[in-house]
TrEMBL record:
Gene3D superfamilies: Bordetella uptake gene, domain 1 (3.40.190.150), Periplasmic binding protein-like II (3.40.190.10). It comes from Delftia acidovorans (strain DSM 14801 / SPH-1). Belongs to the UPF0065 (bug) family. PROSITE patterns: TAT. This is Tripartite tricarboxylate transporter substrate binding protein.
Amino acid sequence: MPRTLSRKQFLRAAALLGATTLLPLPQAWADAYPARPVKLVVPFAPGGNTDVLARMVAQGLSESLGQPVIVENISGANGSIGASRVASAANDGYTLLFGTAGTQAINQSLYKNLSEKNLGDFEYVALVTTIPNVLVVNETRTPARTVKDLVARAAAQKTGMSYGSPGSGSTVHLSGELFKSATQLDMVHVPYKGSAPALTDLLGGQIDFIFENVTPALPFVQSGKLKALAVTSEQRLPALPDVPTMKESGYPTFVTGTWNGVLAPKGTPAAIVKRLEEATLKVAGHADFKSKVTALGGEVRLLDSKAFREFTRAEYQRWNAIVQTAKLERQ
């Protein structure tokens, strides 16, 4: 004779059945994701190397995910405004950040309303590229052929040699501060609102040198309008094979530059982060993507979610030390 369940037993059985039914849901979410267009926030103005690379990644992700991935530029405060916007967005995988060394590892040491805790406001999807800097001069104003020449000239000047940057707190600015510290010479930082005006003044002979990101500086070097003295990468770049590294030029620990990776708001389901991680690494690992990044003077560097998080933590500590040495005032 069939057993009759009490109401209490029935409710307990129903709860267990419900829990069992819910277990696969995270994977189901991932399988259904994305069901609508995804937004990739670039925390800088259109046209820069971060924007160019983000659009390349977005195009690849659109094809891989089967939904449009739309780039939105939200600039200001060295990328902090755009990054903060993403950190406070819904953690459903539909708003992502194309983060940089500035947004994820430098700004925390420069802005009073940010802190090391800001690093935990995101899920780290994948690192895709690194963009080193290149030390460039206008030989008409600064007739130097090597880093050694530049240092000798700076030492001989009675007034401080000037170096430009696209803004305070950028890797370009901090590379200049690192050079100043390494040489123990008097140098003057001249900040601009972007790479274009900084390079324009360098071409016009208004400043002495810049540790510019390779991407915007490369056309001027290739055309002979600017002289590249050294690159700040670990090894020489395919785009500038005859230009030595800063390490080769006598500064063995001088490795700087920015980098780019995809991030999501904290709390984004792990299954969705995994889906994005796999898609992003696939896009950035494609031969066509690699060739385009190389042509821009960058390097493809693939790190999965866990390795990207660890990398960012190490980068924060490294850049924080540079900021502290330069005694930069928090804004």
